[in-house]
Design goal:
Layout lengths: L14 E2 L5 E3 L6 H27 L1
Antiparallel strand pairs: 1-2
Amino acid sequence: MEKLNYSRINWKDRVLTDAGEVKEEGTALNADNLNRMDEMIGKLVNRVNELEEKVQKT
């Protein structure tokens, strides 16, 4: 079974000034970041299914 590695994104909120101007950009909510999470979720679901099959055989 392959070892799964995942580097956390450590999401940051966008910070605005009282005037509504961007003081600090947050982490981009984009296809690249969402697809990274989606890929890992798929791998984890597959891993859980594999482990369930192994448990049922014992």
